Amino acid sequence: MIGCLCIHGFTGAPYEVEPLADYFKKSTDWDVQTITLPGHGDTLALKGISFQEWLACAEIELVRMLKRCDELYIIGFSMGGMIAAYLAAKYPVKKLVLLSAAALYINPRQFIADLAHLWKDSVRGTLAENIIYSRYKKKFLKTPISSAFQFQKLVKATKPALKSLELPVLIVQGECDAIVPVSSARFLYNTIPSSHKELYLIPDCKHHVCLEENAGQLFKHVESFLNKEFQNAQFQQANY
Q1: What is the reported pTM?
Q2: Among this protein's residues, is 207 annotated catalytic?
Q3: Which CATH number fits the domain that encloses residue 91?
Q4: Is 10 annotated as a binding residue?
Q5: Could you identify which of 51, 69, 97, 140 might form a hypothetical disulfide with 3, taking C-beta atoms 3.0 to 4.6 angstroms apart as the criterion?
Q6: Does any domain span residue 159?
């Protein structure tokens, strides 16, 4: 049996990857699982949660899946991408998909452009209808500064794993992402040593690649990548 573990991002929840997970549940017979990292979900409760707890949560589910699956794929979104990379370097994962993976974060130019749209909507009285505003308003208000530091620590702790990734890796990045810049995807591509890696850039796409209107095309591309046969793809375990 093939297993596929999908990991959401910082301050997020499974909804960030569920459209892709649901796609696989309908189009394959895989064991597809999503998780909710500690302190995350519909109601944020991040205070006092360490980045090690986020790693441990994903690792526990991965180990469970390895016991019942012959092959395991991991898909990680944003911070979840860094967690996925860390686990793929440590365990016998067959293929890895990184969606808007936060090796680097905050695209200043795009962030300013998005703020300009927020200001225009505020002047027009249509701010409540702005997707960016509605999506991030609660997160900004309910995310402790200490949790933001834990996020930074996680990125720093997981980056060394990138240099040990020899398995097939698909790197997906929206070119209009205000949270994770395109340079993050290029950094990943240049750092990961795998001979089976692909950089897939999506024009006019923002951070939540699985929630975009044209996400169906992305889902088909990810499925094609995961179904592809790669010659001489090997797993090399590293300890972190």
Answers
A1: 0.86
A2: yes
A3: 3.40.50.1820
A4: yes
A5: 69
A6: yes
